[in-house]
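Box S2. Input/output pair 1.
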Amino acid sequence: MKNTRFLAAIAASAAIALGGLALWQVSYAGNPPPVKLDHKSLPLFNNPPAAVGQTAAVGGPNFSSIVKRFGPTVVHINVRGETTTTGGPDMSQVPPQLRNSPFFQFFQQFQNQGPREVPTEGLGSGFIISSDGLVLTNAHVVKGAKSVTVTLTDQRSYKAKVLGTDAKTDIAVLKIAATGLPTVRIGDPSKLEPGDWVLAIGSPYGFYNTVTAGIVSAKSRALPDDSMVPFIQTDVAVNPGNSGGPLFDTQGEAVGINSQIFTQTGAFEGLSFAIPINVAEAVARQIIEHGQVQHGKLGIAVQTVTQQLANSFGLQNPRGALVAQVSDGSAAAKAGLKAGDIILSVNGQPVNDSTDLPMMIGMMQPGQKVKLGVWSNHRQTTLDATLGSFSEGSLVADAGSTASGHGLGLQVRPLNPAEQSQAQVHSGLLVQGVSGPAEQAGVQPGDILLAIDGKAVSSVAQVRSILKSAGNTVALLIQRGHARIFVPVDLG
């Protein structure tokens, strides 16, 4: 049987309905009005003295003093909500010969019941970031909650208010009516290196204050639908219920928030992912100060620059983010960005890969001015852009993927007016046949060829002219449906 891999948001979600057990589906907790908190004398993220550095023991470091010092800053979160059930069993699927059965008559009474709300219950973890009761956790832990209860390690429980959530970064801030609480010490994720020891504290499967440890496996991982977050990948055992709990380094400093696992079974299989604490801190400040979070938007779709694509655009080394699509009227369009440009830097900070750009832009504010270093028409230039505001369904800087192969070999024809209207393009060539090089590169009949090496094409003659002066590799800009991507083709 074929295994299906999936990314699981790891808040344990046990829904109780008529004695059954099901996964709990929840929705937004919403963005309440700003809460006035006096933090002039009390920093948002209190930083008590660092824990004493650990002495490496045989087999690894001893984390016991970190757990004793900062374990009390980790909380257990219990969430109650409601979910809508369907209207009962579909008795129309029962074979006619079985409809005289007493079981059919028994279940038939439930068929006409309409959708109804049933109680749900879920759990997760969090940690205290200020002594007056601010708690950081994942947005998916409290999504759609009717009530949230925070339990401390000394068994004190408090009803919590959700100050706000941000689904794009999976961050939420809670407030409980308590003072004098212990707080985590905030670390610097940029100092982490693959191979460094880290530990997690949380409530996997409801087991309060469970401690697990491992190493940093990789940094700046991009995950599907989470393009704004450069995840820290670890092999720390993280399971349902660990969501929202802290990831500590060997100095006892919180460097991340455990958020997701990559699994075939729904349980830990060696791949866990944490949100860097600096990302969480920036989002939390917006929630506390404004009750909501805003993200900057360029309005482009980008993809990784492979060596073949770099060769096609005259770039010596594969780096940066290749612009595959620019939204009409977006900040990118107004700045003069176009498909085929490669963004090399933002405000002087290098863009090493396409996965860097969404996080860099998304964590900026709408209206903020940015200076983009761009490779365009075989030379480097600079463009100034004023970021727009991100909203659902819009592109910040979406990272795509590429296909590769050998050669060209296309049968194309110009689009007629009806096809242009349907595809929402002004020019291009419809791919009618694919063979050899283009077929191996992933081009398919029905695709629309928009450009070669950044030069728009609307006739077969233009294609031939461009290919005469092309190098060993060309980049085809292909539209399939409403998605666009550059496909590198090796001409040999």
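Box S3. Input/output pair 2.
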Amino acid sequence: MKEPLISVIVLTYNQEDTIARTLDSVLAQYCSAPFEVVVGDDCSTDGTRHICEAYAKQHPDTIRLMPATANKGVVDNYYDCFEACRGEYIADCAGDDFWTDKYKLEKEWKVLAANANVTVVHTNWNRYYEDTKREVANKETPFASPITRGSLMLESIITQTTAPVIHLCTAMYRAKVLRDFYNTNRALLRNKEFGCEDLQIAFVLAHQGDVAYLPETTLDYSVGHTSVSCLPDSAQQFRFVQRTASLSWLLASHFNLDTPRTRAFFALKSYELLMHAFRCHNTALRSEALEYANAWRVALGKKARCVMWVTKCPLMWRAALLLRKGLVGVKGAMHPFK
């Protein structure tokens, strides 16, 4: 077996219905450079690991399944796989997503090989709705030039709200660039309180060099189900917003990024935290939201101050929740198919 030039990280947890599709899409790659697939199953409780074991047995020269351990979370799972990678370049594909271009690795590897200043190359992608099997093209590409100076993207990466500026599952990056930063700033990258691994990676790679973009679509990104960023209730959504916004704040502070846009972003996140606390009718979360607003040095806007005023009084808070429930019901009756 040749030493791999490219490592593909596949993270999975309780994805027995999709992990085979993911692995098939990676194994289907036509790439003239040797590549390996490092699979991190995070102690799945369904049949995911059994499927991964079968693939590793069937493709022993390509797939390396990380040893079974206790559940560790997405951040530790990712960086354990990252440390195990042998390739000069690294690509990602989550266990519920799948690549749609059989030449993805080949195209991206050639871009990196031809451009020494490029630290990461990424592409466009589709949203893939599992229930209907419908693909919807991503139309948010704020930096669509073939090559962009990464420093120009930092503000956008740190304030992204609806779609990632660099979708890591479409990307390939230089392992050494991230490894060098990881070795000296481990706590900034590998902190499981962040709840995600991709935002900080994209930011660091952009900070360290140029970013290349290929306009073709290479990924179907699975949506329409519960995931790290699509959670079923407001308490969980509160924690997701708090973790990702706290990560953005740490990155902004570490790299001295303070602009009107970043300040507006943290004001928005403070308002979102207050609204999630309001929906939960949770005074502890309300207090926590205000603590984060203070830590992020946010000047609360009118809507946030209104939520603060309503939630000061328990009776007013309950009345507002009942009113909101009624309005949501009316809206649902008027638009039953939305």
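Caption for Box S3: The chain has a mean pLDDT of 93. The CA atoms of residues 171 and 185 lie 22 Å apart.
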